[in-house]
Amino acid sequence: MYNSVRTFSFLFGYLPMAAVNLKKFQAQKEILSKQEYDALIHTEPQKWAKGILKRTKSRIETSGLENLPDGPALLVANHEGNFDIPVLLSEIPKPFGFISKKEVKKFPVIPVYMEDMNCVFLDRTDRRSAYKSITDTAQKLKDGHSILIFPEGTRSKGEGISDFKTGFVRIAKDAGVPIVPIAIHGTSDIMEKNNNKIRPGHVTIRVLEPVLAETVEKTEAKQLIELVRKTVETEVQSMAQEKADLK
User: Fold this and answer.
1) What residue stretches are annotated with the Phospholipid/glycerol acyltransferase domain (predicted)?
2) Per-residue pLDDT tens over the stretch 107-139
3) Which of 81, 87, 107, 244 has the highest count of CB atoms within 10 angstroms of its CB?
């Protein structure tokens, strides 16, 4: 319970400072390159995410950062828990936006940051919104920004990886960018497996070898979906076994 209070207090208590910093950042937007501004904006969410994770007292282990390519890329990860986004923001040095539920727009400050991070908002109840999110995400990538997507659509809560939906392949093919598979294990131990109470977890992240844009272009969609899903699933299973062996 104490960890939960500390974490949520920081989550919302940090917003006034974030709002002040956002105004400072936006004042520099016209004089910075697109890549420089993305990197600047990324510093605040990364600081926020690190602060949240520090208060959960979780241990994070990350490897494979050398597999992050230069230039825009579609980051594709399994979706285990609510802490996937904070963990990835805190550990991945490459600036990225992500697809988020439109309900987040009701929060103060956060959606403004997300827009500058090049996030895309999705209304899950509207098919036209789902289609638009695909085209909007592809355009963000074409404009030179990296995007993270969870193709399972919903959290697995640590109970295996579900089927990957086809949208991420359409996005990558349309944008002509590489796909970077990312395997996450352990985020559900922080919250979902504790009746939504926050507890310390041991999270491992592995950034895997990218599927080059040339391969994305020439590979059939079904094969590409299976390739990326199997790559992530195999690594998640390996991480789970490694942790089991340590117990």
Assistant:
1) 73-187
2) 777 778 888 899 998 877 777 777 888 999 999
3) 87
Question: CA 209: distance to chain centroid?
Answer: 17
Q: 3-16, pLDDT tens digit by residue?
A: 555 555 555 555 66
Inter-axis angle of helices 34-56 and 15-26, to 10 degrees? 170
Residue 87 to residue 54: CA distance in whole angstroms:
11
* Domains identified in the chain, total number: 1
Would you state the structure tokens that stand for residue 21, as one six-digit string? 């910093």
The CATH number covering residue 147 comes to 3.40.1130
Nearest to 207 by CA among 50, 59, 42, 66: 66
Of 56, 20, 99, 95, the closest CA to residue 194 belongs to 56
Question: For 206-215, what is each residue's pLDDT tens digit?
Answer: 999 999 999 9
Asked if residue 156 lies in contact with residue 220, where contact means CB atoms within 8 angstroms, the answer is: no
DSSP-assigned letter for residue 211: B
pLDDT value of residue 2: 45
Short-list 160, 189, 202, 164, CA closest to 74: 164
pLDDT in tens, 153-174: 777 777 788 899 999 999 999 9
| C-alpha closest to that of 68 among 46, 94, 86, 38 | 94
Spatial CB neighbours of 206, under 8 Å, sequence gap ≥ 6: 62, 63, 64, 182, 183, 235, 239
